[in-house]
Amino acid sequence: MSAVRTTCPFCLCGCESVVTAGYQYRMEYPADARVNQGRLCPRGNSASLVVDHPKRLAYPLLDGREVSWDRAMSYCRDALSASKPEELAIVYSRGLTDAEVRLVRGFARSQGVSNLVCGYIEPGNCFVRRLKGVKAATLDDVRTAKTMLLVGDVFSTSPVAAGPMVEARYKDRRNRLIVIDCIKTRQAGFAHLFLQVKPGTEPFALVGIAALLDRALAGVDVARFASLSGIEQQQLEQAAAMLGNGPGFVGSSMSLGRNAYPVLHSLASQLVALKAGMPFTGFAEARVSEGEMSFGQLRQAAGEERVKSLFWFGGMYPYSYPELLPEATKLEHRVATSIFRPERAIPGLVLPVPSELEKESVGHSYWGEVNRHAVAAPCSGSRTVGRILGELASVAETPEKPLPAAGVEEALKMAAGAAATHVPGPGPVLVGEKKAIGIGGLYEAEADVCVNPTAAQGLGVVKGSCVVLTTRTGTGEFLVHLTDAVPAGVLSIGVNRHGNRVLFPLEFDAAGTAAMPPVRVEVRRSATAPRPAPKTKAIA
Amino acid sequence: MAKRLALRLDYCIGCRACEAACRSRFKGEARIRYGETATTALLPMACRHCTDPLCAAACPFEVIRRDEATGVVFQSSFHCVGCRSCALACPFGVIDTNLRRRISQKCSLCDDRPEGPRCAATCPTGALQFVEESELPEKQVGVALSARSPNWRRG
User: Fold this and answer.
1) What is the Cα A386 distance to its own chain's centre?
2) Which residues on chain A are in Cβ contact (under 8 Å) with B121?
3) Closest Cα in chain A to B36
4) Among B61, B53, B97, residue whose Cα is nearest residue B77
5) Residues in chain A within 8 Å Cβ distance of B25
6) How close B111 gets to chain A, by Cα (Å)?
7) Beta bridge partners of residue A478, listed in sequence order
8) Coil, strand, or helix at residue A363?
């Protein structure tokens, strides 16, 4: 029996845990850990289940059939030789270590490929966009904070990071917590001031607060920004006054189906931090550097058949989630890596790779650099990304190009542009809630839709009713959960499950950055009896 | 004096880490559950380890017993036949009627782990604590809660 002390790879909190191998993998909670004192969130706890998960992929799959590694590698070589470098796209995503991302970059360079894309389209990744002059928050900043501004559901993104925040909130009666969100999450329950904005309009409220903190900000009409986000100007003034309470920090988080302007959300949160003189942390599951080409541009190129072969390394796999890249069906060669066996037979090649828990790496966290150790031997039959790339070409690690930090003017211009085109949709709006619940849907079916009790009367539904939600991209059956956490006119569903995500459209801005905004939804009662798990499908 | 699980309600963020820790130990079956209490609040629910346990009284084969020294109500899963009498008898509804391994699941306060239950060790905000009965806070939890959190979410 061996016990390995490692750092949890499932978000950037940097929690230390011990995974014990024996008859079965078990978790242990080291009380002397600096960041988490042995505390772990549901995702961290599921680490022991991922290592020996029954659905782990143990052999390459070609068009859904098992093949040998020799056959798989010859398919990869065919894909490389059949297309010119400009017809080849290489995508990297989360699930890779920083060193592996550098190897993928080196592979792209060795093949002369310029279509290098970051495939991690979670909105939280937009926190890689920095604003000039904003300092990163440290753990001590959080522990000694007197004023905290949290945008979005930080507690659900990184529950362990919520520990010091809750303690700081209760430490002194004069300490203040401000929360900006469109639904009343558990985190909002801790707030002294809760600004419940309209879905997707957090950046407008933030820019309004920044303008109140610094009257010199040009071209910001606070009253208009307040009305765009659906709150009173007085509430923004209250928030701006509270931010002068004392030292603290600004934390921000995003979720699929919740944020309409992810890049602006990131910059606006940092703008408030800058004007309040506070450090900032963007809470997200992973941080993957930007590629040479944006995901929107890749979709366009694949649609116009300028790309013929695709190599996809890491998670958010486009074929088990076809709505991500519907143009993938037009490609001639498709190679992807996966940890789990795909649920259905998919075209192209799938290569088994070790999970994040089976690799040694040096990574980053909110609070600094962390070391991760392999808690188990790599899954039998899997090969590391480094070995796969090494067999195809001689590659050297190529460092990423740092993204230039944006200026205040750029953020304000972006906000003005979004404000000019923002159209509040009529009718009920569906928003997504992303929670830290296990990996790969291990814990939850996410069959519930949250409905406001007063709105439920108008819709003719009661608790436990089965309803069919239809948006312009998908439809699904859900069970009604009545709660005053959502206001009338807003419904919320979980987005950890892929089937629930198809209800949200994937949209791209001019630069090709992906967003999954809140969407207008049609609600009707289902004719069928309530079912425990919903069945969702995308509308073609 | 025996140690007990205590929930500081005003620290709970509803992340369900307690349930996940229990599931990861018992391979998919949680003995502490994050569930609905009296149809108004969603909170962790764990065995109270009653002084006179009704589950033990209902068990036809005396599989559930109370250790008088520690006060822990424990179950021998080897002898359980999965009749669900304990689940029906429990006044707090903490024993799950959904039997995946065809035997009932009963919290034993992680008696295989000397430091105490995993749910308390993992709780990200320290809401769930493993403390001596004498250390239990004197304050009324509900009063502290309403005074501290005007926006408290129940469901």
Assistant:
1) 25
2) 29, 31, 38-39
3) A481
4) B61
5) 26-27
6) 14
7) A467
8) strand
Do residue A163 and residue B126 have CB atoms under 8 angstroms apart?
Answer: yes
Query: Can you give the residue ranges of every domain in chain A?
Result: 2-51, 61-122+288-392, 139-277, 425-538
Residue type, A201: T
Q: What is the CATH number of domain A61-122+288-392?
A: 3.40.50.740
Q: What is the pLDDT of residues A311-351, one digit of tens each?
A: 999 987 787 788 888 888 889 999 999 998 888 788 899 99
Helices (H) then strands (E): counts for chain A: 16, 27
Radius of gyration in angstroms for the set of CA atoms belonging to chain A, rounded to a whole number: 23
CB contact (8 A) between residue B17 and residue A39: yes
pLDDT of amino acid A468: 93
Interface subset of B 50-109, CB within 8 angstroms of A? none
Contact B122 A39 (CB under 8 A): yes
> Which H or E element spans position A211?
helix A202-213
For residue A278, what pLDDT is reported? 96
Chosen from B25, B36, B145, B151 to mutate, greatest number of chain A CBs within 10 A: B151
Strand partners, B44: B34
Q: How many angstroms separate the CA of residue A209 from the nearest CA in chain B? A: 21
A530 pLDDT exceeds 60? no
Confidence of residue A436 (pLDDT cuts 50, 70, 90): confident
pLDDT tens-digit readout, B66-113:
998 888 999 888 888 989 999 999 988 888 877 777 888 889 999 889
Say yes or no to pLDDT of B7 above 50: yes
Q: Which of B15, B43, B118 to mutate to test the interface with A (most CBs of A within 10 A)?
A: B15
Contact call for residues A257 and A323 (beta carbons, < 8 A): no
DSSP A114-147: --EEE----GGGGGGS-BTTPPBP-HHHHHT-SE
Q: How far, in Å, CA of A199 to CA of A432, rounded?
A: 10
pLDDT at B150: 63
User: Under a CB-based contact definition with an 8 Å cutoff, are residues A534 and A477 in contact?
Assistant: yes
- For the segment A276-295, what is each residue's pLDDT rounded down to a tens digit? 999 999 999 999 998 899 99
The reply to whether A425-538 shares the fold of A2-51 is no
Q: Residue A50 pLDDT > 50, yes or no?
A: yes
Query: Which residue is closest to B27 within chain A, CA to CA?
Result: A49
Token reading at B25: 């130990």
ipTM summary value: 0.88
CATH architecture of A2-51: Single Sheet (2.20)
Question: For the domain A425-538, what is the CATH code?
Answer: 2.40.40.20
**Residue A39 and residue B123: Cβ atoms within 8 Å?**
yes
Question: What pLDDT score was predicted for residue B142?
Answer: 47
- In sign, the C-alpha dihedral spanning B41, B44, B46, B51 is negative
Which CATH fold topology does A139-277 show? Dimethylsulfoxide Reductase; domain 2 (3.40.228)
Domains of chain B (ranges; CATH) run 1-46+107-146 (3.30.70.20), 49-106 (3.30.70.20)
pTM of the model: 0.92
If pLDDT is split at 50, 70 and 90, which confidence band does B143 have? very low
pLDDT band of A534, cuts 50, 70, 90: very low
